[in-house]
């Protein structure tokens, strides 16, 4: 049992919790006694049972010292207990007194939460602090208040995030409630404002929360997608971002492989892998799995747009040239593929020959089943073109018919293209190269075709 006080001023001890006494209130203060506490202008009278229910606390320590002093002086304890005066908000203390009396107190809004939390630590109420530590986070986004369960922010794919890295740290560790603040000599807790992010959209954040709770994602249009992506990146929801980026998942019956279509700018290093073919250790294809989302990789179909690709058709071997940021991104992608290809798991020590220096192009394969739209019309296999016997010509049966029979270089500007990334041995040489196998192209062969595709402003 607990020892409240004695003439020998023995140290205060509390009986440890067990199955026998787990529902009992420890005997820190006499349960039947009433102790006066004045908070601001309002007087509260709480029983020793209530004050002992969440202890040790500022209140229990104060009144234990009072009882010990009374016993030492031999005074009448019923008349010698002084009122404890504390200059804090009596409105907040009403909720705290309800907690001490055994009622569950739940924060009503962000302002109520931070005040209740601040006073709970000021009064050193361990149970209330622990309860508030597990409560939902209250935050104002775009001047609308949200109550967010903490478990949403503990998902590995979406944590750490804006909240766990930012001001939520003040409500994350019961042992260090105000990081960086020295508690020694602290008269009162620091002033805390309710968490607020006024410059983001409340409607967009509400949708992000809806998705984080596991509901299906419905994208109305590209503008809507960009709004969601912008705020998902702002709040550092990496897993949700991967679900929001444009993509297409399907199963190809012809190849008997799963496929994923992604834009070049959305490719991440951690999602790339290489599958080596059993028949040739120096051949394979590139796979991709969205980080935090996909359980297994699928064959990557890479989409490159923005008219940043040019295909040079002359010379018997089509090659692709890239411009602006696309060139740097493709070069970085090939570096990652080379690293993945040379992992100990694959047992390879051959590097990719594609370095994408200023003079380098990437080998392109135009197959008979490549879907090509050229100058706004479907481009079919050229039945009149001359055939060659070499393997390169067999790989690229799609030839552009030359109306003038001239020898000037044939070029296509690809508005948008989708490509498979195939690894293969370099013909007549050592090493491995990554070739782009066209699956679908929308291309232009001349400036006239580009001008014909223009639209007038506002039309």
Automatic annotation (TrEMBL):
<dbReference type="InterPro" id="IPR003131">
    <property type="entry name" value="T1-type_BTB"/>
</dbReference>
<feature type="region of interest" description="Disordered">
    <location>
        <begin position="375"/>
        <end position="409"/>
    </location>
</feature>
<feature type="compositionally biased region" description="Low complexity">
    <location>
        <begin position="383"/>
        <end position="393"/>
    </location>
</feature>
<dbReference type="GO" id="GO:0051260">
    <property type="term" value="P:protein homooligomerization"/>
</dbReference>
<dbReference type="Pfam" id="PF02214">
    <property type="entry name" value="BTB_2"/>
</dbReference>
<feature type="domain" description="Potassium channel tetramerisation-type BTB">
    <location>
        <begin position="37"/>
        <end position="130"/>
    </location>
</feature>
<dbReference type="InterPro" id="IPR011333">
    <property type="entry name" value="SKP1/BTB/POZ_sf"/>
</dbReference>
<protein>
    <recommendedName>
        <fullName>Potassium channel tetramerisation-type BTB domain-containing protein</fullName>
    </recommendedName>
</protein>
């Amino acid at each position: 049992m607990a020892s409240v006080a004695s003439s020998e001023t023995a140290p205060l001890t509390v009986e440890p919790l067990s199955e026998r006494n787990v529902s009992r209130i420890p005997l820190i203060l006499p349960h039947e006694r009433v102790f006066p506490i004045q908070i601001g202008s309002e007087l509260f009278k709480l029983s020793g049972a209530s004050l002992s229910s969440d202890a040790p606390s500022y209140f229990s320590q104060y009144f234990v010292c009072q009882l010990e002093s009374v016993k030492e002086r031999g005074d009448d304890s019923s008349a010698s207990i002084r009122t404890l005066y504390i200059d804090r908000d009596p409105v907040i203390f009403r909720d705290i007194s309800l907690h001490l009396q055994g009622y569950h107190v739940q924060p009503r809004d962000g302002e109520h939460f931070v005040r209740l939390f601040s006073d709970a630590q000021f009064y050193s109420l361990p149970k209330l602090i622990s309860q508030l530590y597990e409560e939902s986070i209250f935050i104002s986004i775009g001047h609308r208040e949200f109550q967010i369960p903490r478990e949403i922010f503990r998902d590995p794919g979406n944590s750490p995030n804006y909240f766990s890295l930012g001001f939520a740290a003040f409500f994350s560790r019961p042992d260090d409630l105000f990081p960086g603040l020295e508690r020694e000599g602290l008269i009162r807790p620091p002033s805390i404002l309710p968490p607020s992010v006024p410059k983001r959209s409340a409607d967009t954040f509400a949708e992000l929360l809806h998705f984080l709770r596991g509901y299906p994602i419905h994208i109305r249009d590209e503008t809507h997608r960009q709004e969601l992506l912008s705020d998902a990146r702002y709040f550092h929801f990496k897993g949700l971002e991967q679900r929001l980026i444009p993509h297409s998942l399907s199963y190809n019956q012809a190849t008997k492989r799963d496929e994923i279509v992604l834009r070049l700018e959305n490719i991440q290093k951690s999602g790339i892998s290489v599958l080596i073919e059993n028949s040739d250790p120096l051949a394979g294809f590139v796979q991709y799995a969205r980080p935090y989302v996909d359980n297994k990789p699928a064959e990557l179909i890479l989409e490159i747009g923005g008219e940043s690709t040019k295909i040079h058709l002359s010379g018997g071997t089509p090659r692709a040239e890239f411009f602006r940021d696309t060139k740097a991104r493709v070069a970085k992608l090939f570096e990652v593929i080379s690293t993945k290809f040379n992992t100990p798991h694959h047992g390879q020590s051959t590097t990719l020959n594609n370095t994408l220096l200023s003079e380098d192009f990437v080998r392109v394969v135009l197959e008979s089943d490549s879907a090509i739209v050229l100058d706004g019309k479907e481009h079919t296999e050229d039945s009149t073109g001359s055939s060659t016997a070499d393997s390169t010509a067999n790989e690229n049966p799609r030839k552009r018919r030359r109306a003038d029979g001239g020898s000037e270089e044939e070029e296509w500007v690809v508005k948008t293209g989708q490509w498979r990334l195939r690894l293969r041995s370099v013909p007549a040489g050592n090493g491995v190269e990554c070739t782009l196998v066209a699956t679908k192209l929308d291309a232009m062969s001349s400036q006239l075709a580009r001008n014909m595709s223009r639209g007038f402003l506002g039309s």
